[in-house]
Design goal:
47% of the residues lie in helices and 12% in strands. By secondary structure, the chain is of the alpha/beta class. The protein has two domains: 53 residues; 223 residues, TIM Barrel, CATH 3.20.20.370.
Length: 309
């Protein structure tokens, strides 16, 4: 009962009890009824005091329950698998596959990107995927520091847990550490709940151990669907794909620094998001030359935080 209703009820009872005393037919009966009325007033006063005290106590705070991600069958978005493809760029121009991919990402409104089509200057965005350590990351970091180039490192949970000193160095030297999921699953094949768990596990490790909150996500193997794009975006992430890459993850088949240099530089184009793998000794060996060549061609290296999205 609220205060106004309570007070109204008390006043009504008091008026009724007063009427009992005022309408007594004789003195003896009046004395009895007045005595009864006085007793009732005392009881009503005590009751009203108790009720008022109870109604003025602070109400219990209701803690809102965070709803889990919407079930897939309610999202209305396609679960059909899409595998990111970028095409091999030539003659300083992005492949039409990358151009079309960026148009698709723009149409989704999910802050996903693979190619900068808005910046007029010749810009490049250097990124690395880090699933495990092969003794090359510190060499890459040394080169980036020497050349004053920003980069983004997309790390899995295993890599973060195994190489905390490298992660700390990336952060301290001004690079971006991106979320590459906890266990590197195919995001086109798992539920929204599982996607959330994969992303949050990796994120929580960076927040709790390094005080660093990641804002960029990269799909394992570039596999996704419309539903997963929506889920990743709803968690506050921007999704980084790529428009320039090569088969550098196969450490059992190294081809040397010259091959890496020639392959990467032949595929450079304005607005390129370059994907390299930090496990490649070929990349570690050629990175400095790639950076020098790109700058000689008028390119500028920028951080993903400068990407116009």
């Amino acid at each position: 009962m609220n205060k106004k209703a309570l007070c109204a009820a008390i006043v009504a009872i008091l008026m009724l009890s007063s009427c009992v005393a005022d309408n007594a037919p004789n003195e003896q009966e009046a004395e009895v009824k007045v005595s009864v009325a006085d007793t009732e007033r005392t009881q009503i006063t005590e009751l009203s005091t108790t009720l008022i005290e109870e109604t003025t106590q602070p109400e219990a705070t209701t803690v809102p329950v965070t709803s889990p991600p919407k079930p897939v069958n309610q999202s209305g978005l396609s679960r059909k698998k899409r595998e990111h493809s970028y095409g091999v760029a030539k003659n300083g121009k992005p492949h039409s596959i990358s151009v079309d991919a960026q148009k698709y990402f723009d149409s989704t409104g999910t802050k996903a990107f693979c190619l900068d089509t808005k910046t007029e200057e010749k810009v490049l965005y250097l990124t690395f995927d880090c699933g495990w350590e092969n003794g090359c990351t510190s060499i890459i970091l040394d080169t980036l520091k020497e050349k004053n180039v920003p980069a983004a490192f997309f790390c899995t949970l295993d890599h973060i847990e195994a190489e905390p000193e490298l992660i700390r160095r990336m952060i301290d030297e001004g690079h971006i550490v991106g979320n590459h999921s906890a266990n590197h699953p195919d995001f086109s094949q798992i539920s929204r709940e599982k996607m959330t768990s994969e992303i949050k596990e990796c994120e929580n490790k960076l927040v709790n151990d390094f005080g660093y909150t990641p804002v960029f996500f990269r799909y394992p193997e570039g596999s996704y669907n419309e539903d997963s794009l929506d889920l990743v975006n709803s968690l506050g992430y921007k999704t980084a794909f790529w428009s320039c890459a090569y088969a550098d993850w196969d450490v059992d088949n190294p081809k040397g620094g010259d091959y890496a240099f020639e392959t990467v530089t032949a595929r450079l184009h304005p607005g390129a998001v370059i994907l390299l793998h930090s496990v490649s000794p070929d990349n570690a060996e050629s990175l400095g030359r790639i950076i020098d060549y790109a700058r000689e061609q008028g390119y500028e290296f920028r951080a993903l935080t400068d990407f116009p999205i």
